[in-house]
Amino acid sequence: xxxxxxxxxxxxxxxPPAGWEExxxxxxxxxxxxxxxxxxxxLTDTDGLTLAEPLxxxxxxxxxxxxxxxxxxxxxGGPWRVVGRVLAGNxxxxxxxxxxxxxxxxxAMVPEGATAVLRVEESTTTDGLVSGTPRQTxxxxxxxxxxxxxxxxxxxxxxxxxxxxxxxxxxxxxTLRVRRAPRAALLVFGDELLTAGPPAAGRVRDALGPAVPxxxxxxxxxxxxxxxxxxxxxxxxxxxAALRAALTNADLVCTTGGTxxxxxxxxxxxxxxxxxxxVVNTVAVRPGFPMLLARVAGADGRVRFVAGLxxxxxxAIVALVSLVAPLLAGLQGRPMPVxxxxxxxxxxxxxxEHTHLALVRLDRAAGTAxxxxxxxxxxxxxxxxxxxxxxxxxxxxxxxxxxxxIVPLPLLTGERAS
Length: 418
Known about the structure:
This protein is 18% helix and 29% strand. The protein is α/β, with parallel strands linked by helices. It folds into four domains: 18-36 and 181-331, MoaB/Mog-like domain (Molybdenum Cofactor Biosythetic Enzyme, Chain A, 3-Layer(aba) Sandwich), CATH 3.40.980; 45-58 and 150-179, no CATH class; 66-141, Molybdopterin biosynthesis moea protein, domain 3 (Molybdopterin biosynthesis moeA protein, domain 3, Beta Complex); 341-408, MoeA, C-terminal, domain IV (Beta-clip, Beta Barrel).
């Protein structure tokens, strides 16, 4: 690594900003190339993680013929003589004689030799004989009706939620092979920030320190209160020390502020001092233009990442959905997020040669998107009432009725995106 002082060589002109779609693809690819290690975890400890192996059925589902109703398993024509009872969890003796029946509970194994199951509510019992007319449609589930033994049910890269856990349990799995959850840290830059109370006397309240960790958790990261540091002093040595410490344990370090080249913007020199190389350095998107993603080789040979989020709050969230979300998808071995589409209910202006990410509220039933108010790059009021960002591509504007991609804001842990 190089020294921790500011580089003295003449700066090379910065390359042009990456296109927004190109930047997403680029960071996803580097994340996938650095996908996190796999491990086996108990089934009950996998919620929010990602399948590292296909989920397969360990046996036929159902594994045996199973009654779908309470009633009578009968053989031949009626009336039927009652010869026993079958409850769930037992293996019944075969029905070997026509005209016989056993009482059967929902979920119980249908005895060999049964020709039908008669619903209890459609039967009568007189003098120990059961009468009734079984329905033509079989009232039991056949082996393999849901899945065959060794059939692939879900592919590698599937996010694990309670539904997946339940399916895995029904197949007989006690553990799953998963990707380790990404470990994240957050460094808040800016001497002007207050961490308590209302803004006053030229100082503003830090809104990103409390909010960004919650966003990261919704993307599947582990981040503890001790992993959030700041405000970090506006000096180069302080920035380098904070980054080096955070990178010791984190797979991803997010920073807020300092992504430009102002008199107290030390992120770029700090990254150079740490030997980092840029994956993306600025993106042609508004808001959020001065976002970046860099990678740093760790002493253990694993690559760590630094995501530079702009200091303006809404711009920082644009950087999260633009760079951090696809990076984390790659690190977790998940597919590249596919953007849903919606129809614009109102006009949304373009931003020239930049992609415009415009905050919108969705009417999911109608499939429409409504622009929200209070959407300045330093504002959070509009974000608090929004569902995501409408993507207005470079050189275009959004007219009412246009179908446009939507970048959804991450939902609560375990929920699926719409």
